[in-house]
């Protein structure tokens, strides 16, 4: 069991739910987010420590790692959860917004992992969990950059898992589908489809905790493995079905 954990994107949604579940099990949680008021309230609720930062800013991930280590001395569990979406036709996405999406969804977890990994390897103990997205494994119309960034997270997690195979540091990945959070409001387009039904942030958080304890890939809900398997086994058929029934969420 981890004694300390750093959870990014903890001011709402999956991150906040994960922090609560970890705190209930006795873990001291370092709470990262941008909303200082929400972080302060969650820190009071969980007994954790609030660390406000904008991961889109250059150098912010390394600084966050330094602050976390200065407070606890070690981070046993890193939950790379912070994410940002945008929905719409690619030509309407500004270059500035594109860079912001990539920085938060891809560059930040890479930098944060790189910064905290040496201490984990020195202790020969640590857990890293990435919260990815089904968009990164199947692609989603109208969210090409978000999907690309999450696909990058998947590849990074897999490669890191191979690299750390003979060490005491483990890697887990959680792949949620549609989750009832503020994500869709913030991306600029609400979720309007009747299927798949959104799942709760608490359900995804439970998968995060499981991925820390028993490393592997966790789909939420589990049936999301089916379209991923179909895409791998019969990509032409998958793309035809996706185009026919619509991949936009």
Automatic annotation (TrEMBL):
<dbReference type="GO" id="GO:0016491">
    <property type="term" value="F:oxidoreductase activity"/>
</dbReference>
<dbReference type="InterPro" id="IPR020904">
    <property type="entry name" value="Sc_DH/Rdtase_CS"/>
</dbReference>
<dbReference type="InterPro" id="IPR057326">
    <property type="entry name" value="KR_dom"/>
</dbReference>
<dbReference type="GO" id="GO:0016020">
    <property type="term" value="C:membrane"/>
</dbReference>
<keyword id="KW-0560">Oxidoreductase</keyword>
<feature type="domain" description="Ketoreductase">
    <location>
        <begin position="3"/>
        <end position="182"/>
    </location>
</feature>
<dbReference type="InterPro" id="IPR002347">
    <property type="entry name" value="SDR_fam"/>
</dbReference>
<dbReference type="InterPro" id="IPR036291">
    <property type="entry name" value="NAD(P)-bd_dom_sf"/>
</dbReference>
<protein>
    <submittedName>
        <fullName>SDR family oxidoreductase</fullName>
    </submittedName>
</protein>
<dbReference type="Pfam" id="PF00106">
    <property type="entry name" value="adh_short"/>
</dbReference>
<comment type="similarity">
    <text>Belongs to the short-chain dehydrogenases/reductases (SDR) family.</text>
</comment>
């Amino acid at each position: 069991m981890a004694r300390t954990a750093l959870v990014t994107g903890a001011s709402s949604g999956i991150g906040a739910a994960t922090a609560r579940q970890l705190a209930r099990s006795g873990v001291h949680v370092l709470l990262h987010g941008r909303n200082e008021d929400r972080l302060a309230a969650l820190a009071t609720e969980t007994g954790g420590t609030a660390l406000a930062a904008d991961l889109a800013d250059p150098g912010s991930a390394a600084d966050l790692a330094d602050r976390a280590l200065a407070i606890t001395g070690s981070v046993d569990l890193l939950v790379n959860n912070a994410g940002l979406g945008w929905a719409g036709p690619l030509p309407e996405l500004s270059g500035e917004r594109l860079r912001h999406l990539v920085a938060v969804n891809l560059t930040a977890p890479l930098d944060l992992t790189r910064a905290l990994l040496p201490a984990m390897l020195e202790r020969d103990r640590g857990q890293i969990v990435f919260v990815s997205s089904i968009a990164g494994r199947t692609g989603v119309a109208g969210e090409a950059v978000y999907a690309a960034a999450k696909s990058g997270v998947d590849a990074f997690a897999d490669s890191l898992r191979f690299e750390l195979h003979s060490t005491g540091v483990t890697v887990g990945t959680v792949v949620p589908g549609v989750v009832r959070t503020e994500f869709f409001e913030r991306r600029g387009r609400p979720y309007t489809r009747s299927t798949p039904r959104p799942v709760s942030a608490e359900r995804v958080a439970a998968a995060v905790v499981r991925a820390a304890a028993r490393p592997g890939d966790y789909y939420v809900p589990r049936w999301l493995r089916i379209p991923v398997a179909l895409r791998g086994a019969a990509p032409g058929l998958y793309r035809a079905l996706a185009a026919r029934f619509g991949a936009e969420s």
